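RECORD TYPE: inverse folding
INPUT: structure tokens
STRUCTURE:
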């Protein structure tokens, strides 16, 4: 079996309403879909969100690298050489994690289809029958976001993420209001998206103890490992890394300096399923929690690979 064709298909998915974060406001998701066809007619599909504010990629750059350098290097190769192909793509184009993730997902789809197995059976490590979904609240008043969160919980969502990272007084009030609205049986995950400096983050963390967040996600800029380490050492609640931890190597570095008490992993960050599994392995060995997340607005293709 050989790779015969690699296609990059750019799409845009409009959101019903904007998602407001500390780093950006998103009203549509730009996604790259990859279709890999083999010489015996097997077709595999992969997909990734591309976002300049997160991975530095655009639809144009992802389409170019997938349909150009990646296709040139991979056509004619055996798609089952998953690890070798992953390493090759990284050598060809450092970073470009979303583009690499979409190709790697499509190759996994090919290999699993060739074996006539779902991907979890191909790996042999099915661990659950269902995956909990999360509801985001952002961009409103404390009262409106608390009301929305309560409606989401009533509809059956078991996790609520509240976007913070702006005005700290507003964010404290929102976090406490959301917790009061949803009760204490629902996991609450505040996400600051790198929005604060160290004193502001410290103030927020101490003020929301009674809200019992599962962890507070990326309160400081992605480059500030030492600041994150200070928060982890002194915070009364768990501090997690997202934008500051893309792959297993970055997680090892963050753990070495004590900069994370939990970690978020995504297919687009870790550059595909192999990278996500590596992050889980490092986190499990370190005894920290992992939140396996997607991006709001991505398609069912990524959800299926997750």
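DESIGNED SEQUENCE:
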């Amino acid at each position: 079996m050989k790779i015969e064709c690699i296609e990059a298909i750019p799409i845009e998915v409009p959101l019903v309403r904007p998602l407001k974060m500390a780093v950006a406001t998103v009203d549509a998701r730009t996604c790259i879909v990859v279709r890999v066809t083999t010489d015996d007619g097997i077709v595999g599909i992969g997909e990734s969100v591309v976002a300049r504010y997160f991975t530095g990629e655009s639809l144009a750059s992802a389409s170019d690298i997938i349909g150009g350098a990646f296709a040139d290097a991979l056509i004619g190769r055996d798609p089952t050489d998953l690890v070798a192909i992953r390493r090759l793509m990284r050598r060809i184009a450092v970073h470009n994690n979303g583009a690499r993730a979409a190709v790697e997902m499509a190759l996994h789809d090919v290999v699993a289809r060739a074996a006539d197995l779902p991907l979890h059976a191909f790996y042999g490590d099915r661990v659950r029958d269902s995956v909990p979904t999360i509801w985001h609240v952002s961009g409103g008043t404390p009262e409106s976001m608390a009301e929305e969160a309560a409606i989401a919980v009533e509809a059956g969502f078991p996790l609520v993420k509240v976007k913070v990272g702006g005005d700290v007084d507003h964010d404290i009030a929102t976090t406490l209001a959301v917790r009061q609205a949803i009760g204490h049986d629902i996991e609450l995950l505040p996400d600051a998206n790198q929005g604060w400096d160290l004193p502001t983050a410290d103030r927020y963390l101490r003020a929301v103890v009674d809200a019992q967040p599962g962890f507070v996600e990326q309160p400081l800029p992605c480059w500030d490992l030492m600041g994150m380490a200070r928060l982890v050492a002194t915070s009364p609640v768990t501090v997690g890394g997202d934008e500051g931890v893309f792959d297993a190597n970055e997680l090892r570095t963050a753990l070495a300096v004590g900069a994370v008490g939990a970690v978020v992993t995504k297919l687009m960050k870790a550059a595909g399923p192999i990278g996500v599994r590596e992050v889980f392995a490092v986190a499990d060995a370190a005894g920290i929690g992992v939140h396996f997340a997607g991006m709001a607005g991505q398609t069912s293709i990524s959800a299926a690979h997750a």
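NOTES: The mean pLDDT is 93.
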